[in-house]
Write a structure and sequence with these properties.
single chain; alpha/beta; Rossmann fold; seven-stranded mixed sheet
């Protein structure tokens, strides 16, 4: 798709601060440093729309971006899965839980994982936790450029086994090479009904 505009709208820590507007919304989640900011920036063809983790600020809030004045992209604060059970009782958990429960316009969540790190019990319990909210989840393995093609295939198979999904359910992505960008947009587009922003293969990889 051709991204014509992508703007930061606001950061929120509670529901009253979420932006108004009846736009379909896609949320992005992942461990700190997994490459979430880079993935969103790649999708919208911007270098620094979402501040990468080296940049302080904006990190512990839910950040809303408006794409083509038609869709909200929501950057959820990064976390360590291991901290989730504790964090659920503290700040991160309730903030995310309230968002996932309360946001009617949320269509899908993109869960980003590092292809080099085999998903374990932490990931599966996190995914199960997400399923409890009944939100379609798109699974992405990023930083694929860091592995050879052969290793990417092997890791994807192993990750699929660990997560009990089909290999085809794991999108291979790289912010560096932009691999997987078209595939991820296709997956997102299914959740953007009557989208004003239609997939345009030429526009995608320009
Ligand atoms: P976030 O904390 O999840 O938002 O992660 P960032 O997007 O800030 O990325 C963390 C680090 O990984 C940065 O140094 C990025 O340059 C690097 N990185 C992110 N995505 C990729 C990728 O696809 N390939 C490579 N080689 N590095 C990446």
């Amino acid at each position: 798709m051709i991204v014509k505009s992508a703007e930061f709208v606001t950061g929120a820590v509670k529901a009253g601060q979420y932006p108004a507007g009846d736009f379909p919304e896609i949320a992005f989640a992942g461990r700190s440093n997994v490459g979430k900011s880079s993935l969103i920036n790649t999708l919208v063809n911007r270098k620094r729309l979402v501040k990468t983790s080296g940049t302080p600020g904006r990190t512990q809030q839910i950040n809303f971006f408006i794409i083509n004045e038609a869709v909200f992209f929501v950057d959820l604060p990064g976390y360590g899965y291991a901290r989730v059970p504790v964090a659920i009782r503290k700040n991160w958990g309730p903030m995310i839980e309230n968002y996932l429960k309360g946001r009617k316009t949320l269509k899908a969540l993109v869960l980003i994982m590092d292809i080099r790190r085999m998903p374990g019990a932490e990931e599966t319990s996190f995914i199960a936790w997400l399923h409890g909210f009944d939100i379609p989840t798109i699974l992405v393995l990023t930083k694929t450029d860091k592995l050879s093609k052969t290793k990417q295939i092997r890791q994807r198979q192993e990750a699929a086994k660990a997560l009990a999904v089909d290999t085809g359910d794991l999108i291979l992505f790289s912010a560096k090479s932009r691999k997987g960008k078209a595939e991820l947009w296709r997956a997102l587009d299914q959740f953007i009904p009557e989208s004003r922003i239609k997939i345009d293969e030429k526009g995608l990889d320009r």
